[in-house]
Write a structure and sequence with these properties.
mainly alpha; elongated
């Protein structure tokens, strides 16, 4: 019988949570990709703040339906989402 040490359990928990985070990031990227006006500077709606805010709200609603809590009211969070998406696209 193998002896399980506390360090092994913590490492397992860490990997489990990291996997969950990666899956949520993939969901976020998929939802973000549905709204080209958020990242395509050639889009006619790229500079339209109302349409961009609506798109972010739709992403938030989609995430809530999957059980992920989010708040897209701050510019900081929008910047994080854009950075994650662009990093994934450029890999």
């Amino acid at each position: 019988m193998a002896v399980v040490q506390l360090d092994d359990i913590d490492l397992f928990t860490f990997h489990y949570r990291l996997l969950g985070l990666c899956l949520r990031v993939e969901l976020l990227i998929d939802f973000y990709a549905k709204h080209p006006l958020l990242f395509d500077v050639k889009s006619s709606d790229y500079h339209n703040r109302v349409k961009r805010r609506t798109a972010f709200q739709k992403i938030a609603d989609e995430l809530r339906t999957t059980g992920v809590q989010s708040d897209f009211n701050s510019n900081h969070r929008r910047n994080i989402i854009m950075s994650l998406y662009l990093a994934a696209v450029n890999c």
